[in-house]
Amino acid sequence: MFLENIPEAIQARMRELEAIDERDRNDGTPQLKRLRQIPPESGNILALLAAAAPKGDVLEIGTSAGYSSLWLILACQQRAGKLTTFELLPEKVELAKQTFASAGVAAFVNQIHGDARGHLKEYDEVAFCFLDVEKEMYQECYDLVVPNLVTGGLLIVDNVVSHAEELEKFLAQAQDDQRVDAVVLPVGKGLLVVNKRKPLPVEVEETPAEEDKPAPKKKRARKSSKK
């Protein structure tokens, strides 16, 4: 399996980012400046799901320093494709560039500095999307991604267990959405897995065949009476 043979350059950068993330969580680094990245067990799940996703684009909303991107790039290498990843904060865009360069994977990623919400409509065949940004952006990103998922396509949303109360309404709407199947995996901080359903066939009302139509009644000729 490809996850058993991760290149050393990628593993080395993953270890560096894991150490930075651990330090951020313990030294009082402000939340927005922290890496706030997924744990390795979530990365494994992301890579497996992305590698098995149907044909289409692989997207990430929220690059941060590129840790989760590395897991998705491993999947993209299996798919012979590239990851497109969006990040708002310029300092994290630069940090992610360093990640991709040091891991030797820059050729497998398309970095976009900007708000994903202004770009998502350009991607109309999404096979896989990982969403990990500020929670107030979740619903709008969901509403932009789901219509453009291919049949069998996946949207994975992080932090749905750790922020269950804050995301209660969002989760309920996703689980009631008739376009998808949605389930929460208790992995890491909780992953919502959203799978695009096959569209239901449109029912067409049948019209009776010609032979089934009742024959028109013949009008009987009226006899004239002689006076």
Written as H for each helix and E for each strand, in order along the chain, the element string is HHEHEHEEHEHEE
Low-confidence stretches: none
* Count of extended strands: 7
- How many separate helices? 6
Structural class: alpha/beta
Described by the principal axes of the CA atoms, the overall outline is: elongated
CATH architecture: 3-Layer(aba) Sandwich
Total tally of structural domains: 1
What proportion of the residues form beta strands (DSSP E)? 15-25%
Biggest sheet record:
7 strands, mixed
**Topology-level CATH name:** Rossmann fold
N/C terminus separation? 105 Å
Q: Quick one: CATH class?
A: Alpha Beta
Describe it for me?
By secondary structure, this protein is of the alpha/beta class. The protein has one domain (2-200): Vaccinia Virus protein VP39 (Rossmann fold). Helices cover 33% and strands 19% of the residues. The protein has a seven-stranded mixed β-sheet, with helices on both faces. The longest helix is centred in the N-terminal third of the chain and has 19 residues, at 8-26. It is elongated and about 90 Å long.
Secondary-structure topology with pairs:
Elements: H1 8-26, H2 40-52, E1 57-61, H3 67-79, E2 83-87, H4 90-103, E3 109-113, E4 126-131, H5 138-145, E5 149-158, H6 168-176, E6 180-185, E7 191-196
Parallel strand pairs: 1-2, 1-4, 2-3, 4-5
Antiparallel strand pairs: 5-7, 6-7
For this entry, give a set of tags:
elongated, seven-stranded mixed beta sheet, 227 residues, Rossmann fold, single chain, alpha/beta
